[in-house]
Predict the structure.
Amino acid sequence: MNTGRSLGNCYDLLGRAERFRPDGGGGGTWVWDDPTMAGDFVEQMEQDVLPFLRSLDTTEAALGFIKSHIRSSGHRGWHWWIIATIALGELDDARAIWPEYGGSHPAPDPDAPLPSWETEEGRWARYGEIGPPLLADDRAALARILHRWEAENVRGTAIEPYWTPTPFPLEEDAEPEQISA
């Protein structure tokens, strides 16, 4: 049934706060033709969303928040979980995931260039390269891999001028001799 109204619901990830809903109802949707919507949206962003986003100022905080929201976990596969657990330094958790999912991806030839991330072959080759250092508890090698992946994904994008590599929790939790290797 077409009501003639333009609705936006942001997939219920960011619904209209109850205090802004006309008559207290509205089911959390943003009705784009409501003249109060734009101001309410800005106010909700400034009062609720931006302070929350500012609290996600570390890798631990951001990944911890994402990992705690099972509702959205269906959008991420094993590869997201294993990379997140490695970045956080939770290597026992990553090793628990590896045999079932990552173990079928052999490590690429270290002397051959890796295919582009843009190809399926390139993505699987990269997943395969984390297996040996993960199983050997080689934090320094894992950190180098993650930093290289990070750089590959940022290079040539609009955020590259603003990007600064920072240590992963994996590196911060390691003994100094593990990182200098």
